[in-house]
Amino acid sequence: MSTTTPTSTTVYTASATSWGGRSGKVVTSDNKLQLDLSIPAEMGGDNGPGTNPEQLFASGWAACFHNALKGVARQQKLDVADSAVTLTVNLIGGMATGFDFEVTIEAQLPGIDEATAQAALEAAHQVCPYSRATRGNIAVNLVVVSDED
């Protein structure tokens, strides 16, 4: 278990509670997020109207990574006003071996050459809290989507 050191300062705390697991609901402590959960058909579920933990994970990481990328771009004086980040989470494995994630992070950075964009992605991957928390535990592929794609 990891603990904060005495020199650490908590900047923000988020808390959510789940009832019913993958086929229940999740609510944040401030009630700003209240979602029904459904199990996807690919996982043997009813593919109901709710979201799932993988979609929530992908959404959170995509937003966090995009913000890290914007911070890197500011430092490097790159214009990323029209940028977009798509994060794809693959759940792999099975009950016998356990489940793992594979992640692809795709960034569209219009007007920025591919080498510069790739370097910015890699720098963002070093500072994004999700990337840091999962480093060494999840296979991550960083992809620059060209203007022509």
Automatic annotation (TrEMBL):
InterPro entries hit by this protein: KH_dom-like_a/b (IPR015946), OHR (IPR019953), OsmC/Ohr_fam (IPR003718), OsmC/Ohrsf (IPR036102)
Gene3D superfamilies for the chain: 2.20.25.10, 3.30.300.20
Biological process annotations from GO: response to oxidative stress
Domain of life, per lineage: Bacteria
SUPFAM superfamilies according to UniProt: OsmC-like (SSF82784)
NCBIfam families: organ_hyd_perox
UniProt record similarity statement: Belongs to the OsmC/Ohr family.
Name of protein: Organic hydroperoxide resistance protein
Organism of derivation: Cryobacterium cryoconiti
